[in-house]
Design goal:
34% of the residues are buried. The protein is built from nine helices and nine strands. Strands 5-4-3-6-7-9-8 form a seven-stranded mixed β-sheet, with helices on both faces. It has two domains: 78 residues; 178 residues, Rossmann fold, CATH 3.40.50. Helix 3 crosses helix 4. It is an alpha/beta fold and 268 residues long. Helices cover 43% and strands 18% of the residues. The chain is globular and about 60 Å long.
């Protein structure tokens, strides 16, 4: 790793003197760094998982795993779920209890929750992740993100990435093709947090959930107005129509909160 750091420093010195070399550096060297970092990040994560003895061990990884080749590297791989630890633990206990076999996650972001679904879902689970086709801080898939996420799988699990807007009709069609008429055990909605967005995700994908399957919403706690999070508004509209559970450490925390409903066909 020290050699890579020295090479990185040398190239940064050279690129200051050459615009052309600067472009070559961006295209090739940084891609090389990203690829190697991702491969080694996946390898290290697997090694860490072998030493996990409890739910708490796994949740700690899901909330804080970071890997880079060396200090000051231009690229690092981050695993996070942007959730409250206490709430996340309680939610994953439900997933583990049900051994969910078919799971759909809308909004994978940094992959922490997907990681836990792979760890505590069924050993032969089908995990479908829906997120935007390009990576940014709000989510989506970069070229190497899906490779890193696939490293979560156990031997008999299958992981599918649908890199599209969850609201587009073609996305639903693709999901149905992957399901092959099978019903979902768990639908986790954590994508578009606007009222219309979360409502659309629920209305589009909840019909695919089996009777007595779980549908979970992230961020049901009232957020600060400037964050444009309206999940709580839709949650409060529908929760009384179902058997439901609210996993909230503090209703005044202004973030997070997970709402879980038990699906029933033909609800009104």
């Amino acid at each position: 790793m020290q050699i890579l750091k020295l090479i990185n420093t040398l190239i940064e010195n050279i690129q200051r003197k050459s615009y052309f070399f600067h472009k070559i550096y961006i295209i090739f060297y940084r891609q090389f760094i990203k690829t190697v970092t991702t491969l080694l990040a996946a390898k290290k994560l697997k090694k860490l998982c072998k030493n996990c003895k409890s739910l708490d061990d796994n949740v700690n990884i899901a909330l804080s795993y970071t890997y880079s080749l060396f200090e000051g590297s231009p690229y690092k791989v981050v695993l996070n779920s942007l959730q409250n630890k206490v709430e996340l633990q309680e939610f994953i206990k439900l997933v583990a209890k049900n051994r969910s076999r078919i799971i759909i996650e809308i909004g994978t972001h940094f992959g922490g929750t997907l990681f836990l679904f792979s760890r505590f879902g069924s050993h032969d689970a089908l995990l479908i992740s829906i997120d935007l086709p390009t990576w940014n801080l709000k989510g989506g898939y970069g070229r190497l993100r899906s490779f890193f996420y696939r490293s979560f799988r156990s031997k008999h699990q299958k992981m599918i990435f649908v890199a599209q807007d969850s609201h587009h009709p073609s996305t639903l069609k693709e999901v149905k093709n992957h399901l092959k008429n099978k019903e979902i055990d768990l639908l986790f909605i954590d994508g578009d947090h606007s009222y219309e967005g979360v409502k659309k995700d629920f209305e589009t994908y909840s019909p695919l959930v089996k009777n007595d399957g779980m549908i979970a919403f992230h961020d049901i706690v009232v957020h600060d107005q400037g964050e444009n999070c309206e999940v709580n508004k839709f949650w409060n509209e529908i929760k009384e129509k179902f058997e439901y559970k609210e996993i909230v450490e503090n209703w005044y925390q202004k973030h997070w909160g997970i709402g879980v409903i038990i699906n029933k066909k033909g609800y009104k």
